Amino acid sequence: MRSLLDFLKGKWLGHPLHPILAHVPMAMWLGALIFDLLSQCQIGGNAMVRLSFYAIIFGLAAALVAAPTGLVDWSGIKKEKPAWKIGLYHMSLNLIVTLLFGVNLALRWQTFREASEVDRIPLLLSAVGTLILIISAYLGGRMVYEYGISVARMSKKKWRKLAAAGGANLPPE
Amino acid sequence: MLKNLLEGKPLRHPIHPMLVHFPIGFLVVSFLLDLVSLGFPEVPNLVRCSFYAMLFGVVTALLAAVPGFVDYSDIRRDHAGKATATRHMTLNLMVVAIYGINLWLRSSALTDFKISLVPLLLSLIGIVLLSASGYLGGRLVYDEGIAVGRHKRKTPTPQDTLHLSTETAAKAGEAIFVSVPNAEHLRNGETLRVEIERQAMTIARIDNQLYGFQEFCTHRFGPLSEGSFHGFNVQCPWHNSCFDVRTGKVTNGPAKVDLKIFKIETRAGKVGVLLTKAHDQKT
What we know:
Number of domains of chain A: 1
Largest sheet of chain B: 7 strands, mixed
Number of helices of chain B: 6
Number of strands of chain B: 11
Helix content of chain B: 25-40%
Mean pLDDT of chain A: 89
Strand order of the largest sheet of chain B: 1-3-4-5-10-11-2
Radius of gyration of chain A: 20 Å
Strand content of chain B: 15-25%
Oligomer: heterodimer
Shape of chain A: elongated
């Protein structure tokens, strides 16, 4: 159990896994919206419709892989910290977005092979999903850049050495 | 002003790591579409799809490069992360060049049902280099703390460490005065990162007074010379620990241990720091 948690936290890689995996759904789903809009402008024809469909599927697959790594990172934050609450919002929004793109994908399933442009409702779902995702991703970034979540978590020893060499008062190990 | 904008200070979030989602995502998906086209050559448009994805990837990579250069220029010259950042940048430039060639090769064969070998190989090399580069970029944030908490700081951060040495050898317990000429020019909220006799310290001006304290936070050793100031408190950019610069006392966690502080004095018209050499310990 312990080793599974360490794996999901990315200790083996020396880099947290969640922010690596999160790139894929973020890019794919915003990409899907852009492809939908292009397709509405009669650009790309069926290639654009398919591209959007593939982007949503890749995004969903990556989101499902990214979710457990995020959950593990979040569970390591103390409940009284402001980052815990932000993490909760981040997670809830992500769940909503994943659901929206799940429905979105189902709506396209029958038509993506032949259609020469994306329908209105899937387009709308892409737009709403992407908007919520941007807010959610921003919250995720704030956890790192405002509250330092996962920062210097794996490089603690290296920094302690530097601080000791610089004559600093140190916390007990 | 433009620099603050490109560093994402108004958003309170750096811009470069926001934008890099797109080149990474699109270039990976372009490669996956290539593979699908090999496995399912009867599916139409895959090669064209892959080309569009790649085009998006390269355009967004160029966009992401701009705030990336700004972030790079703001890393202290003697920071351990600077070399990593140089490697990250070099790899990214190579990746963009490789994908530029790749796009050009593909542009004449968009109606193919199967991707041909040379562009596929170029994509493979591109993905490998991009992964390595993305990994280094992540290490910059999660190991070196680059850009973490940067938006909280209102003044520029030190571009270099000032290395000074004591002119006279001090006996144990004796205080020696080391002049720090640059300290006089500091404005309120500005800092110097100084190293004297293996003591790394921050010298900051607050409310027209100079204060000296240890450079490394006592929590996870974040750089206090890049911290922000609230009254007489310095806040670590990483995990927001606060210390009173006058006493070194922790005023807000997660840190629990107080800072070492250094006395700043003016002697014979020169500003400097008083160093008390501890008993001759070998470290």
